[in-house]
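Batch job 17 of 40 flagged for manual review because the log was empty.
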Amino acid sequence: MTLADDAYVSAQFAVLDDLCFTTGHDPDAVRLRMLAGLLPLPGYLRSDGAEMVPRDLFALTEQAGGPEKLEAWFVAHWADRAVGRQEWQAYLSGQYVCLHSVTPATIRRKEHLTTEITAAPHDPDAGSPRWEARLHAAIDELDALEPAFTGYDRLRFGGPTSRDLCIDAMRARFPRGSAAFGG
């Protein structure tokens, strides 16, 4: 992690101990829940060793009715339970840092949007004003769901992020107004 990565992470996430203090949770008990697969691991370790977690780390647990009910509640958001279990494992890994708020709804929406945006250049009406409006609406919605990411993310995930591919690259490739000019 570079100093820029640390600054980004500090702005986007909370130090686990600090979040536990402000929400009345015992940090050691939370760590045990993480190790038991009841809560996600920290998404980042800052250069100073601070465990960085989402600011809403405990929100899903509360919605589910407690940490013991979280997995079943989470997985139930997918019609295909095998996919739900895969997403649960990804959630627990702590590497779901690609969303401002990690919930089953935002995970599913991101998947839908990235699929739609990636397929857009191959749509039958590609390049038309109506297509451009759909494409940019999807890009804008994904932009609102995703943070900027860090250079470290590109290293640990082995390349460009969904923001790089589906937001930045698509906006550069298909700028607003290009369809109106036959672009």
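Reviewer: the log was empty due to a logging misconfiguration, but the result itself is present. Residues 129-145 form the longest helix (17 residues). Unflagging and moving on to job 18.
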